[in-house]
Each structure stands twice: as structure tokens, then as C-alpha cells.
Automatic annotation (TrEMBL), chain A:
Listed Gene3D superfamilies: Acyl-CoA dehydrogenase/oxidase, N-terminal domain, Butyryl-CoA Dehydrogenase, subunit A, domain 2, Butyryl-CoA Dehydrogenase, subunit A, domain 3
Protein name per Swiss-Prot or TrEMBL: Cyclohex-1-ene-1-carbonyl-CoA dehydrogenase
Keyword presence, Flavoprotein: yes
UniProt-listed Pfam families: Acyl-CoA_dh_1, Acyl-CoA_dh_M, Acyl-CoA_dh_N
Acyl-CoA dehydrogenase/oxidase N-terminal domain location: 6-118
Residue span, Acyl-CoA dehydrogenase/oxidase C-terminal domain: 229-378
TrEMBL record, chain B:
Keywords: Electron transport, Transport
PANTHER family: ELECTRON TRANSFER FLAVOPROTEIN BETA-SUBUNIT, ELECTRON TRANSFER FLAVOPROTEIN SUBUNIT BETA
The protein, known as: Electron transfer flavoprotein subunit beta
One annotated Gene Ontology cellular component of this protein: cytosol
Family: Belongs to the ETF beta-subunit/FixA family.
GO MF entries: electron transfer activity
UniProt lineage: Bacteria, Pseudomonadati, Bacteroidota, Bacteroidia, Marinilabiliales
Domain Electron transfer flavoprotein alpha/beta-subunit N-terminal span(s) in chain numbering: 23-213
Amino acid sequence: MNFELTEEQEMIRDAARDFAQRELLAGVIERDENATYPKEQVKRLGELGFLGMLVSPEYDGGGMDTVSYVLAMEEISKVDASVSVIMSVNNSLVCWGVQKYGSEAQKEEFLKPMARGDKIGAFLLSEPEAGSDATSQRTTAVDMGDHYLVNGIKNWITSGGTASVYLLIAHTHPEKKHHGINAFLIDSKLEGISVGPHENKMGMRASDTHSVMFNNVKIPKENRLGEDGQGFTIAMRSLEGGRIGIASQALGLASGAYELALQYAQERKTFGKEIFKHQAIAFKLADMAVEIEAARFFCLKAAWLKDQGKPYGQASAMAKLYAAETAMKVTTEAVQIHGGNGYVKEYHVERLMREAKLTQIYEGTSEIQKIVISRGLLA
Amino acid sequence: MKILVCISNVPDTTTKVKFTDNNKQVDDAGVQWIINPWDELALTRAIELKEDGNNSIDEVCVINVGLSKCDATLRKALAIGADKAIRIDADPIDAYYVAAQIADYLKNNPFDIVLSGIESSDYNGSSVGGMLSEFMDCPAISSMTKLEIENGNVTIHRAIPGGKQILELTTPFVGIVQKGITNEPRIPAMRGIMMARKKPLEVLSAVEMESLSHIVEFELPVAKASCKMIDAEHLEELVNLLKSEAKVL
Ligand SMILES: Cc1cc2nc3c(=O)[nH]c(=O)nc-3n(C[C@H](O)[C@H](O)[C@H](O)COP(=O)(O)OP(=O)(O)OC[C@H]3O[C@@H](n4cnc5c(N)ncnc54)[C@H](O)[C@@H]3O)c2cc1C
Ligand SMILES: Cc1cc2nc3c(=O)[nH]c(=O)nc-3n(C[C@H](O)[C@H](O)[C@H](O)COP(=O)(O)OP(=O)(O)OC[C@H]3O[C@@H](n4cnc5c(N)ncnc54)[C@H](O)[C@@H]3O)c2cc1C
């Protein structure tokens, strides 16, 4: 047992912190307010290597471990979760699957530019009728001999409008249920693909979320990822890792809000003393600190298991559930500690609270995590 | 051309300073060490110059006089982009000791440009750079806010009260770096952090020498007195306080 970070892990955490504080903080309120895509910031994220930090150096990635990824995600999410969700989707939902299941040609064409940050990846699983129940895929990819013909609609796609690479999930053999689902790795500009309007969201407003329509889109055979029928496995395995990313995002939202609240509580005075000296406020901060620490342990444990090559599905579901619930609770309390100021945008905590809500919903709702965890209990 | 950047390992600027050993030692328990902010700017500028094809800088090295706890700081310098790090293994007692150790290294390992920060944020001696130039018998340019090299020609700006001075000079020289030399210290990229694993960090033993000074005692600055605001309408209260508390009336 060892709770020490390595020197390199600390260096990565500090680099992420410096980047977030110096380059994300300044415009974050305006980007949220106007739902402006953080183009420059994502470019810098790529230059610094965060977009492909988990990809092996052989494919132009940073070759960093998952523990470092948790640390970087936390620091970036403290300041701007719209940026960190782009990082999480690119690293764990798209690059990971290509590195694990992709052919050499696919890695050359898609993985390398994504790892360098030259191209952004999006993960297209959810549909209007298939969110929690991801097996009810209605998008079809019919095998036409030399290509697949794809029709259908994908919903709520992060980076849907900006990504150049799509990892698409669609049904080829509906009679085989989820064993008939395929995954494809495609250029987002293929003929027949159209993107719906930018969703006007409650939080993470600067990340672009869109529906994506497929109308007789021809996908060459060599763009299938993995074996025929392996798509659902690829999607679920990707989500197992993705949950570590979203759990760390939730952790960052919580710890970011906590740090602001702790600071505020030492500055704001009521009834002649700093509000931190009112026990009701001090105890809130104590509870927040304890829950954040627990969430951090969950995230790091899941990451460590993944780095050790051990099963991490159960641990990542626990981390995602606990961290998301903690984020919601802690950000709400942070608004409370800020009083009226907490309800005003310039103090950041109201935004963190709006963003925290999403971590309970995407990449498997909190209810779905409990399904995953409870099934795991009997496994 | 080769540039050597002197790196001082200093406590993070938010550190709460405490002392031990009868106030003769700084207590470094729990201290986060960082690259002295001016040195980080100097290093960033050196790397920018190396990356810019218009000059012939082919090596940027960093040097520190310190104990093994400085290694993490040196590896960060390597991750930012330095090619090689040298640590002279000694507990640096004062600026003279540091400058003499670096000068000794330079005797057998000449560099064209040596950069130091204008001060180290721990002891603020502002003396290593100047002493080093004396040891090296070359010019020292203090308060350098700009460093350009084109085809071997060096142009430097210095901040002087109310304006700036522009100089041209030949190598070797010691440049003592002030803020402005570059915009922001560079953040190490994942690739840099990965490459730093393979870059050399050489540890050399120090030359025997006496330090010229010794510490008698440290003292913290007196805490700022708190300020009482009195409403303009309550003048008697002000008078009372001046009498009873401040005792100036
Ligand atoms: C901003 C945003 C970004 C997103 N990005 C992506 C993306 O990049 N790629 C992608 O593929 N998807 C993405 N999603 C989709 C997201 O993953 C789904 O919204 C999520 O999985 C929930 O699905 P749903 O919206 O259909 O809700 P539903 O499945 O309709 O769930 C509604 C409610 O019912 C509960 N529920 C459902 N089934 C059960 C059950 N069996 N037992 C108990 N409770 C249940 C749920 O927990 C939830 O509370 C994104 C969503 C949002 C909002
Ligand atoms: C009481 C005392 C205790 C100290 N304890 C420690 C200790 O525990 N650990 C430790 O590492 N240092 C220690 N030092 C050394 C200190 O960190 C400085 O390195 C040294 O005193 C020079 O400081 P200065 O303020 O005069 O430097 P300045 O002249 O202000 O520094 C200017 C520039 O010189 C260069 N420089 C300064 N110091 C070094 C260095 N050591 N190596 C390379 N370049 C340098 C940098 O470029 C810096 O920007 C101690 C110093 C004192 C006075």
C-alpha cells in the first residue's frame, strides 16, 4: 500500500493546474454565458498533450498512466468542465477503443491525429430512444458487401459539431440483439451526415452537444472497429474507462467549489466574525472535505486498478456514482456558503453546481451505476 | 551556442514561513518546492531561442547548487525543455558559495550565455549573477527584460528607472533576468515530461570552500496591525480611541 504520488504524477498535476489557472479561468464565465466553444483552449490542451495523454507514445500519445489522468482531469475540471469533458471523451471514449481494438491502418489514420490533438473525437452511442438502455439501438448499419449503409439518429453527442472523428455504434444484425451491434471509426464529414443545432444546456454550455443524423451514409468495410458484432462490448468497455474520467471531472467540480467556499468562508464576516467561525459553516466545510477525499480515493483506486491491468469496471462505477453525488452535494453547499453571492455568476459556484448535475446523468446515470454495481455484487 | 540557466530551488510562493533550530533554520516540513519564478522565465526564454531557427543555440542546460531534494525541480526544468541538468551536491549557504561553485563548473565546461534570475524568491540576495560574472571575468547585464539573438548578434534590453536601455554585446556574458524576458513561464507538455525521463541529470561533488557568512537568526516581519473603521458621524468615538487605545492624545 502506498499513497504517495510519483514525482512525475505531481508534475502532471501541477502542469494541469497551471494550465487551468492561467489559461482557462480568465474567460470561463463568458464562454459559459454565451455557450462559446473553447477553440483556443482545446488547441492548447492538444499542444500540452492532454488530449492524448493516455495513448501510447508509439501512436503520438503521452503514454501517461490513469492515475495521472485523474489528477489532470480534477485540476482542469475545477475551472472549466466544458473543456475537461472534451478531454475525457477524446481520451477514454474514443482513443482508448481505437488503441485497443483498432487495426494498424486505423491507428495511423485516426489515433495519431487524435492523440496529438490535431483532430477531436466524438463517441456516438446514445439515441433518442436509447440512453440508459443502450442495447435498443435503432441506428442501422446494413452490410452491403463492400460497405455498410448507415441510417439513424444519435442524440446528445459531445463534440458532435466540432469532432473530425466519430466512433459510431449501430446495429447490423438486430436479430442477434446486442451481439449484432457494430462500432465504426469514421470521418465526421462523410456524405449523408448532418448535425443538429447546438443544444442549449443548463451547464457545460461551452462544450458543443448535438444530435447527429445519418442518411444513407456509406461506410467502407475497413472502417469497422473490431470484429463483426463486437460493437456493444467495445462501447461498454470504453464506458468502464470513461467513467473514471467523468468521476474525476465530478471530483474536480466538487474540489473546485470547496476551495472557493473555504476561501470565502474565511473572508466573509457576519455577526462580527468570519463565517468559518460559525460552527454550522465550519461543519459544512468539514463534511465537504471528507466526501471529496473519499471521492478522490475512489477515483485513484479505479485508476490504479486499470494501470495494474486488473478489472476495474466495478471500481469505476463506484467512483462515478460517489463522485457525481458528491459533486452535486458539495457544489450546492458551496453556493449556500456564498449566500447571495453564490447565486451570482461572477463567483463561479453556481456554474459548478449546474455542471455537477450533468455528472449524475451522462456516461450512465447514477441509477444505472447502481445497476452495474449491484450486478457486480453477485458476480 | 550554449546557454546555461542557473536554477534556484525555492519554496512555493504561498508557503507559510516557519523556523526551527532557535530560529536559525527555515523549517522545510511540508514545503512545496518550485523553480524560482525568474529562473523559470529565463529557462523559457532560452528554450524559445533554441526553438527559433534564427540562431545557433544548440544546447540549453540548467544548473543548481543544492541537495537531492532539488532533483524534482531540475527534472521539471528538463520536462519544460532543458537538454541536460547539473546539480552540484551541496547545501548552499550563501550567494558567494553558489556563485563560486557554478564558476568552478564553468572552468571546464564553458557556456556562451549564463542566465540567472534577478533574485531568488527565498532569500532575495540578488547577488549570484553579479558574483558569477566577476568569477568568469565577463560582463553581467542586470535587469534584462529582452534577449534577442540573430546570426550570433546579441541584443538586450534592460529595465532602467523610467525607461529602457538597449545594448548589443558579444559572448560570453551573464544575463540577470527580470520579468518581461518572456510572457509566461512554459508549462511542461506531456511529451516533455515523458522525454525528461531519458535526459541526463548529472550530480557533481562540490569544491571545498568556506562560506563567507553564517546565519545568526531569522525573524518574521511584525504582523500588520488591524485597522478599525469609525463612522464619520461618531467623532467622539475616534477621540476616545485615540486617547484610550492608541494613547497618542
Ligand atoms: C450534455 C450531454 C452530453 C452527452 N454526451 C454524450 C456523448 O458524447 N455520447 C453519447 O453517446 N451520449 C451522450 N450523452 C447521453 C447520455 O449518456 C444519456 O443522456 C444518459 O445515458 C441517459 O440516457 P437518457 O437521457 O436516455 O435517459 P433515460 O435512459 O431516459 O433515463 C431517464 C431516467 O430514468 C432512469 N432510469 C432509466 N432506466 C432505469 C432503470 N433500469 N432503473 C432505474 N432507473 C432507470 C435514469 O437513471 C434517469 O433518471 C450526453 C448527454 C448529455 C445531457
Ligand atoms: C539561511 C539559508 C539557508 C538556506 N537553505 C537552503 C536549503 O536548505 N536548500 C537549498 O537548496 N538552498 C538553501 N539556501 C540557498 C539559497 O536557496 C540560495 O541558493 C543562495 O542563498 C543564494 O541566494 P540569493 O538569495 O543570494 O540568490 P540570488 O542572488 O537572489 O539569486 C539570483 C539567481 O541566482 C541563481 N541561483 C541562486 N541560488 C542558486 C543555486 N542554489 N543554484 C543555482 N543557481 C542559483 C538563480 O538563477 C537566481 O535567480 C539557503 C540560503 C540561506 C541564506
